[in-house]
Design goal:
Distance between the termini: 37 Å
Number of helices: 4
Helix content: 10-25%
Shape: globular
Order of helices and strands: EHEEEHEHEEEHE
Number of strands: 9
Strand content: 35-45%
Radius of gyration: 15 Å
Largest sheet: 8 strands, mixed, barrel
Length: 171
């Protein structure tokens, strides 16, 4: 399958959100923009699902990092990962201008969709189970004015970050 461009984001699913951010800050990654208590509805392995998440975004150069912590016990791609004893690196994300074509390419390549959702007002996303085994999943995120604006905001904050205000709350 031809993926749309370069990897734009590395996602981490963690059981201790605040400790994970502290660890990244110690490595010089920041500032982190945090959203707590976000409800996200989608399809997990074909079944409707609503999860409550705490999310954080930061950049190191042009690479965006995302830290994800699921707050509830709903079945999801995140809970599946932590229930298997995993904690940390979870996904590579590609940002697609032609989202529908990228999803079609993944499904025609035989990559199973394990998590999908979003809406056309903000952005749609799909997680594929990757056959290569390098990542647990491959995420496709739709590029929209909302996602582009957020990416530029986070990246520009990291460019001249002086280490102050390492954790910043959004929303």
């Amino acid at each position: 399958m031809a993926l749309p461009g370069v990897i734009r984001q590395i996602g981490y699913v963690v059981t201790d959100f605040d400790q994970a951010l502290e660890n990244f800050v110690e490595l010089g990654v920041g500032p982190w923009y945090v959203l707590r208590g976000i409800e996200q509805s989608g399809l997990y392995r074909g079944e409707p699902c609503t999860v409550t998440l705490t999310l954080a975004f930061a950049n190191s150069g042009d690479m965006q990092m995302e830290v994800i912590h699921q707050e509830n016990d709903a079945p999801s791609i995140y809970r599946e990962f932590t229930a298997a004893g995993n904690d940390g690196f979870h996904q590579f994300a590609y940002w697609a201008e032609d989202f529908d074509a990228a999803v079609a390419a993944g499904t025609s390549a035989g990559w199973p969709v394990v998590w999908s959702g979003g809406d056309e007002r903000s952005a749609r996303y799909v997680y594929f189970e990757a056959p290569a085994g390098i990542a647990t999943v491959i995420e496709l995120m739709e590029l929209t004015p909302t996602t582009v604006g957020m990416a530029e905001f986070v990246r520009s904050a990291a460019q001249n970050w002086d280490g102050s205000e390492a954790i910043r709350t959004l929303g």
